[in-house]
Amino acid sequence: MTFSTLKTQLKALPCGKKLNHSVYITEESLEKVDTILYKFVADLKTRADVDSEYNIVKFFTNEFKISFLSYPGFFEEPHPELKKSLTLNIATGKIKKFSYHKSLNPPILHRKEFFLHPDHPQIKLYSMLTLEEESHGLYENTKTIGFKLNWEKLLKEKGLSYKGHQLIKSEKIDLPITDKDPIVDRHKTAISRYNFSKPVQTILEYNLLEDTESFFDYGCGLGDDLRGLESMGYSCSGWDPVHRQEEKKISSDVVNVGFVLNVIENPEERIEVLHDAYNLTKKLLVVTTLLTNDNTSLNSNPFKDGYLTSRNTFQKYYEQAELQQFIEDTLNTSAFPAAPGVFYIFKDPVAGQSFLANRSRRKIDWESISLKLYPDRAERKRIEVDQLIEQNEELVKLFWDTMVELGRIPLPEEFKQMNELTEKVMSAKKLRTIFIDRYGADTIKEAYDMQKNDLLVYLALSNFKKRVPLKHLLEGESIPLAPNPLSRAA
């Protein structure tokens, strides 16, 4: 069956939930209304080895692909959760499987009556539920309600719940923040950049931002990407909930959501943000997050579906496939990988397919560009370091005093606040370098030589009497056995 024939068959279906770019229907209903489509689907299931737990078929009308969805609670639950999906790209034969068993906010179904054959005995029950939900204004904004937590949040705000397939009144809840939900410091995740971020680099490498097109940075942080693009002559603007909250969100050709979703601790809010950014997009939406790695949980505590860091910021680390599935489930369109953790979502499906077929990246010397666009990077970095030291003045001064007294970097047991110093400020070696830059090397060298001479005198005197093992030295007395603190190895 060709893609054109498939679309013709889908238009003629007397049932099925029909959206802008897709059609959903139960396999049981498909068999009753269209034997040609049913045989086509049955053949695909055999070839892809799809088992019987997948009970919903999703046809794409903008791409030649099909998804098999597993909703085990379809008939029992008013809004069943998606457990598994298997997507087959008919044009390429590529199969993608995904499980939602770890998801806190899986997709859910609404208006179940549309999925069924008109003669199905449950049609009346499901239709009455939909009418009740409509009368309470639950479908006024359908962009984000297709996910479990978003739907539950709306129900609580309206003071509603379910008894079977009946909508009932419950106590209205204002959703206060509980003691168990710490307030996350999102503003701390913004960082200064001295070159373009990874998503912006890929946009320029793939030549996806024309001179005449506009660029909008959704969650732009300190705005370094914007300053760089403006220096290159591009028309760009940005908004940030902390650093540029007074700016307006502007519809643009290219919209970038770079490292934004991964710092939002509420799964339902990520969906709202993604929809908001997509609605601003004219041509291309770029979504980027951090990916999981071996250091994901270091210095972090599990919190919701991510981690709470030592700086009281939140990080959600995605798998590459997980991020792609999340975007596609939320926006009901294809997300194309551009780099690890970077995905492109084209408003025009044809543009997406063209990107896949013809993509080629330009080689760009990013270091040279960074030096041109950010000539003051060294000075900005120095100011940031000075501010960080000033914010932790007492801790840094205590470390420097200890270092000068010992004539070298203290060991962790000699400076009990070493972990705090590393987390809040920087490493001991970097602070030693800054001390030398500020106050010169002589101070540490003199202290080192004094400690060394004291040790030599101690050892010489011990020759006049019974030798005293080093372990019998007074507790806390320091022996500078380490190499010269001014050497690179120190």
Explained architecture:
By secondary structure, the protein is of the alpha+beta class. It has 3 domains: 3-169, no CATH class; 186-374, 3-Layer(aba) Sandwich (Rossmann fold); 380-472, no CATH class. It has 16 helices and 17 strands. The protein has helices spanning 3-11, 27-33, 35-48, 123-135, 148-158, 198-205, 224-231, 267-280, 320-331, 349-358, 366-373, 377-391, 393-406, 418-424, 428-439, 442-461, and strands at residues 17-18, 22-26, 56-60, 65-70, 84-89, 95-99, 160-163, 166-169, 214-218, 235-239, 252-258, 281-288, 300-303, 306-309, 314-315, 336-339, 342-346. The strands form 4 sheets. Strands 1-2-3-4-5-6 form a 6-stranded antiparallel sheet, sandwiched between helices. Strands 10-9-11-12-17-16 form a 6-stranded mixed sheet. A hairpin with a 2-residue loop joins strand 13 (300-303) and strand 14. Helix 2 (27-33) packs across helix 3 (35-48). It is elongated. The N and C termini lie far apart (71 Å). Residues 474-482 and 485-490 have low confidence and may be disordered.
